[in-house]
Amino acid sequence: MQQARYYLLGERAVVLELSPPVTLPSQRRIWALAEKLNHHPDVLEVVPGMNNLTLLLNTPQADAEAMLALLQQGWDSEESLVPELREVDIPVVYGGEYGPDLDEVARHTGMTPQQVVECHSSAAYVVYFLGFQPGFSYMGGMPEKLATPRRAEPRLAVAAGSVGIGGSQTGIYPLVTPGGWQLIGRTPLSLFNPYDMPPTLLRPGDNVRFVPQKEGVC
After folding, report:
1. pLDDT in the model for residue 61
2. Is residue 97 a contact partner of residue 161, using CB atoms and an 8 Å limit?
3. Confidence of residue 123 (pLDDT cuts 50, 70, 90)
4. Closest CA to 199 of 135, 126, 129, 139
5. Which residues, 6+ apart, have CB-to-CB distance to 162 below 8 Å?
6. pLDDT tier, 80 (very low <50, low <70, confident <90, very high otherwise)
7. How many CB atoms lie under 10 A from the CB of residue 29?
8. Buried-exposed string 152-188: b where 16+ CB fall within 10 A, e elsewhere
9. Ordered alpha helix ranges (H), the chain
10. Contact of 137 with 130, CB cutoff 8 Å
11. Is the predicted pLDDT of residue 209 greater than 80, yes or no?
12. Which residues form the Carboxyltransferase domain (predicted)?
C-alpha cells in the first residue's frame, strides 16, 4: 500500500503526497478527493497533481490542522472517480525539424528512430493531470524503454504542439515556452484556447493515442 503523508505548505496550503509508484487507481482517488473538496467553504482552490493534492485555503492557516485531518479522512475513504470516457487521437509529425531530439532518444534507448516512433505511437496513454502551462498534460502509460533524461540545457523556446519525453513521461507543450524535454514530434492541434469552454483540449482521465502523420501536416 502506498504511504501517504500530509503537511502544511506555507501559511495557506495543505498537501497530500503519496509515495511512488504513480498508478491510475491512486490517481482516480485523487480526482475523487479533489472533486469532493472543491466546494469546501475553507478551500480557495484545489490543485490535483500526480500522486499529490494541494488545497489552497481562503485565509492563512484557516483551521489548517482540521484541513489536514480532512485530507486524511478523504483519502482513507478510498472513494474513486472515473471521469467521462473520452478517446482523443493526437496527430503527430515525428522527427526532422518537428522532432529534433528523436535521434537522441533513439541513441539513449538503443532503438532506431523508427522503432521509437512505433513504440511511442502504439502505447495507450491516460492524462493524469494538467500543469506547468495551461493545457500541458502529464500522461501515464509511456513504455518504460522509452524513458530518456531531460536535456542538460533546456531550450529557450519550444514550439507549441511539441511532443516531448521527460524521464518516464510524455507530454505536449500547448504554448511557446522554455523547456527541457526531449522533442520527438509536433502536433498541429491547439491544446489551449482561452476562448473555448473548456479551454483545454485534454482533460484528466482522457485516453490518448498518438497517430503518426506525414511531414507537412504541421
Report:
1. 60
2. no
3. very high
4. 135
5. 98, 172, 173, 179, 183, 185, 186
6. confident
7. 22
8. eeebeebbbbbbbbbeebbbbbbeebebebbbbbbbe
9. 24-37, 64-76, 102-109, 113-122
10. yes
11. yes
12. 4-202
Q: How many CB atoms lie within 10 A of CB 209?
A: 15
How far apart CA 86 and CA 96 sit, in angstroms, is: 30
Mean pLDDT for the stretch of residues 56-74: 83
Query: Which residue's entry shows cell 518504460?
Result: 144
Q: Is pLDDT at 48 greater than 80 in this prediction? A: yes
Nearest to 43, CA basis, from 63, 23, 73 = 63
Kindly tell me the sign of the dihedral angle through the C-alpha atoms of 19, 122, 32, 44. positive
Give the integer Cα–Cα distance in Å for 81 and 31.
Answer: 6
**Residue 151 · residue 128 · CB < 8 Å:** no
Task: Take residue 32 and report the three cell numbers written for it.
Answer: 475523487
Q: Which amino acid is at 167?
A: G
Give the whole-angstrom CA distance, residue 191 versus residue 91.
Answer: 12
Predicted confidence band at 199 (pLDDT cuts at 50, 70, 90)?
very high
Question: Residues near 25 by Cβ (< 8 Å), separated by ≥ 6?
Answer: 80
Q: Burial code of 61-95, b = ≥16 C-beta within 10 A, e = fewer?
A: eeebeebbebbeebbeeeeebeeeeeeeebbbbbb
Phi, psi of 104, rounded to the nearest 5 degrees: -65, -40
